[in-house]
Structure formats: C-alpha cells, structure tokens
Fold these 4 entries.
Entry 1:
Amino acid sequence: MKNISYKSEILKILEKQSNGNYSNTLTKYSYINGAIDFVKFTRNPNYIAYNGEMKLLKLIAPTISSLQEINVYDLGPGDGNKAKYLLNRLNNVSKYIGIDISQNMLDIARLNK
C-alpha cells in the first residue's frame, strides 16, 4: 500500500489561515478523524462557510416557500442543521433526500432532524 502524506498541503493551508484566509480548503481533510470532527470543524467561528450558507438560506427561504411543490436533494447535508432550518420554514416539500459520502454524517444529520 502506498504511503500518502498530505502534510505539506495541510501546512500550506494552515499558514494561509494563520494570515486570515479562512477558505474551505481544509474541508476535504476533515473526515480523517470521522464525522464528529467534521461537525466540530464547521462549528469553529473561523469557518465562514457555515454562516454564509445560513445567511443564504434565510434570504431564499421566502422565495422557495412560494413554489407549489418541491423536492430537496441535499448534497453533503453535514449535521443536518441547515436542512432542518429550511424544512421548518417550508410547507411545500414533498421529498427530502440527504446524500453524503459518509454514512456517519447521514446518521448525525438524521439525529438532528
């Protein structure tokens, strides 16, 4: 089995973050220690993607709620909190399907429904 090391790439990302660049580039490494670590990672106040996505959901929820009937396919639902927020504000969802590469993440999202 080939030994693959991501050390140099991760160190470059951490260097960027120490200079204030909090891009999402570490996300692909967050499954190294499992789904629980990923949830902790996204709750970090320096992880701006989660807050940005929540702001977007708050903006678009009224428009989506005016549609007659919708199916929601959530790619990478994370802990399920964003879907929960959206689905609690919509009365027109006929189907919700969460899709993720990690069964553990789907289990966490299911617990948060």
Note: The first strand starts at residue 70 and ends at 75.
Entry 2:
Amino acid sequence: MSPQQFNQQRRDLLKSTCTLAGAAALWYRVSPDKIPAEIKDDTVEGIMAYSAVCTHLGCTLSNSLSNWDAATKQFLRPCHDALFDPLKEGANTGGATSRMLPHIPVSDKPSGYVGVKRG
C-alpha cells in the first residue's frame, strides 16, 4: 500500500476508542459530504463521535480493528455481533440490540483539538 493510499484510508476510516468527557467514545471520520444532514452540525470536518458503550449489555468497545467490520464499514460489538452504522446516525443494523449507538456532538476547540460540543 502506498503512503497516499494509507493516508486516504485513514481519512476515510478513522476510528478509535478514547475518553471523551469521562466516557469512552468511538471516533469516525469520512468525507464531510457523506455525513447525514441530521448530525452534520455536530461534526467537524467529517469527524464524528459515538458512545463506545453498547446499547445491549453495556460492554465497551476497545481500540481494536477486531471491533470494525471492514466489509460493511460499521462498528462491531464482538461480544454479541451487534453492528452500528456511523453513517446512519449509529443505527443498529444487526445483532442483539435494536437501539442506536448514541451520537456525541463535537466541535472545534480553541486549542485546535476536537472535543465535546457544549451548549
């Protein structure tokens, strides 16, 4: 894979688990034109965040590629095979739960970082 392909893949599929305001969060990044209109104002340059806590049994997704289904481009909860589509506002598309993965609104911060959107 060339460096350009690698960087493009990172831009298209940035995902990780980290702490956001004391809660585990999943970060995802795509081209801004792919973000659903309903959440576009709560994203920054294609970056969006979702709760990393599963809506079924409360398990937390870890920072691992085993928690990403590359074929469907969705977050995967391996403890019970639930799938969540970040481009459908965190909709559950399969597995043991039927509730959406909560979206976490984000905004630019004066420090240059992206963080939780306030107010």
Note: The chain has one domain: 3-116.
Entry 3:
Amino acid sequence: MNDKMIQQRLLAMQQEVLAKLPDMDGISYQTSEGCPDCVSEQQVDITDLKLLFSLDVESRQRLNRINHALNRLHRKEYRRCANCGSTLPEERLELLPLTDLCEGCEATTLSNQPLH
C-alpha cells in the first residue's frame, strides 16, 4: 500500500469518528485533504472545548491515534517501529493501521503493564 492510499484510509477513519459528533451550531470541525504536505491541516481541529468534550473518551483516543499515524506518515516514520526502528510488516499495518510498534515491542509493552 503506498503512502497516498494509507493517507486516504486514515482520513476515512478520521471521518468515521467525526460523523459520530452531534451537529453543533457555531462549531466547526474539519479535515483538509487539499494539502497533503500540511499535517496540521490533515488533523482535526478540536481546539473548541465544546467539541472536545462532545467526543467520548474512546473517540478522542481514536482520533488522537489517527492524527499520530498521519503525523508519522508525513514524517516518513509510518513503516518503522517507534521503539526499536525495525520495519513494520505490510500485513501488520493493513490489519492494525494505527499501530506504531512491531509485534516484539508491543508484546514487551503489554507484558510490562500492571493488571487492573
């Protein structure tokens, strides 16, 4: 999958999250595909507190992960593990497009987390 296809997939995921937002007068939230080199325009502007708090915790976290993936794509880091720098397999990225860890680093991270 090339970078443009990945970007389109991530932006579609972003729109899915935004589609769940209630219609609020006077509050705008948008993304812009017109500027592929402008990461800040690809991200959702959620600076308005009303908009931010209208998102449930899970949607906010998902939106943050999508924006993180878009930033990584823009910086040419999307296909690299954020921890060890190894190349992430294409199959892993297709199944888990928001991941930034290889299987080994993810397993280590999960094993180090305390059980609740």
Note: The domain at 3-111 is CATH 1.20.120.910 (Four Helix Bundle (Hemerythrin (Met), subunit A)).
Entry 4:
Amino acid sequence: MDVFGWVLLGVVGCRWMCLDELSSPLKEELLSRKKKLGEEVPKLNEKETKIYARLTLDKEKHIDELLVSCDFSVSEALSSLLNLELKGLIIQLPGKYFLRKL
C-alpha cells in the first residue's frame, strides 16, 4: 500500500496535521483518491452547498467573508456551518475561521 492509502485509511494518527502541511495540488490528489475509494459524501442542502463551494483546503475564510459572498443572515450561515462541521466536511478554527476538511 502506498502512502496515500495509509493516510486515507487513517493508519497515520496525525493524518490531519500531516495533510495540513501538504501543498494544495497534493491535497486535491488525496481528496480525489478518497472519493475513488467509494466513501459516500453526505447530502447537502442548497445553503450548505453554497457555503461549502466557497471554502478551500488551504486558505481559511472568516464568517464575515462567507456572509458577504453567500448573502445569508448570520443565523442561516451559522446553522449551515454547524451542519457542515457535524457532517465532517469542514473545521472551525479560532476566531470563526473555517476550512474544508479532507
């Protein structure tokens, strides 16, 4: 099994910390391999999809940026962000910054 397989299977305990240090093209490659393994992506509603599309793997976005770009109320955005976090698709960083999660 290659390194990608080990990381994707979760054998490496620090997989998220290790992946954070990788370049964006490599992260995208890992993400595409993860999808090819048949892992099911959770269903997203329209608001979750809109927010998720604006988040990236390598640059965090502040909630204020998301509010402006999505044109949602604060409660709509926070609700959708919490749902995405509970589905394991994003992580929240200190200061209300958000990133996509592999």
Note: The longest strand covers residues 90-93.
